[in-house]
Amino acid sequence: MWHFCLRHLNKLSSKLVQSMTVTAKCAINYAGLLRNCEPTIEDGWPLVDLLLLGIGPDGHTCSLFPGHPLLKNDKDWVAAINDSPKPPPRRITLTLPVLNHARHVAFICTGEGKADTVKAIIRDRDTRLPATLVQPISGTLHWFLDKGAASKL
């Protein structure tokens, strides 16, 4: 029994911890790469010229998901997520302050399947949806929608 089943438990546990560590290291490394680009900094945040973003049917953008603690991260440029509700579970993402310090943010969204979400974000201003929280402080926000995505506006 031990040989065929239980001996794998220790390996699984160490791999999980290792992958979490790897994800965190990836986030740190990516933030370092951004810093090496010598971006203009305002209030400690990079001023990205243009961010092209999409939205998920649940209103997520980047890897910022509704109700996730990463929405409150106001310290890191890039953060690790190890419990994403959408596969893959381990990812890295720009944080909301980075998105909101961009000079220009453009959301690109297509299809009727996103129409309810687009309405909830643009018309209803549903702040439970992370894409609604993208509001550039000194920049501009643009939406590029096809007829299907805009059909409920």
What do these coordinates show?
The chain has a single domain (2-145), classed as Rossmann fold (3-Layer(aba) Sandwich). Helices cover 31% and strands 18% of the residues. It has 3 helices and 7 strands. The protein has helices at residues 2-36, 96-100, 115-122; strands spanning 41-42, 45-46, 51-53, 78-81, 91-94, 104-109, 140-145. The strands form 3 sheets. The protein has a 3-stranded parallel beta sheet with strand order 3-6-7, with no helix packed on it. A two-stranded antiparallel sheet has the order 1-2. The longest helix is centred in the first third of the chain and has 35 residues, at 2-36.
Q: How many discrete structural domains? A: 1
The name CATH uses for the topology is: Rossmann fold
User: What oligomeric arrangement do these chains adopt?
Assistant: single chain
Q: Count the E strands.
A: 7
Structural class of the secondary structure composition?
alpha/beta
Order of helices and strands: HEEEEEHEHE
Give the overall silhouette.
Answer: globular
